[in-house]
């Protein structure tokens, strides 16, 4: 039986709190406030802020900022609701900025 590729675990760059698994990356083509960002289907050890309506590149959404559960660093956001059918796949997904992450195998 062949061995699968080992995917990294992503951690908070500030405090090394584990945040997400490589197998949960949906896309590496997102843009956050500090530049490139990754979309994850699941994330852990986060604090989710209040829901707010925000205009993003692809339209208006209800989102919630996400912060590291250990150090409180703002990392990105969670899509709560979209108003466009073509964007519905984003609901429940997490976008975390690449500059806020470090990864380990």
UniProtKB/TrEMBL annotation:
One of its GO terms (molecular function) is metal ion binding. The keyword Glycoprotein does not apply. Residues 8-105 form the Yippee domain. It holds the Pfam family Yippee-Mis18. Keywords: Metal-binding, Zinc. It comes from the Eukaryota. Belongs to the yippee family. This is Protein yippee-like.
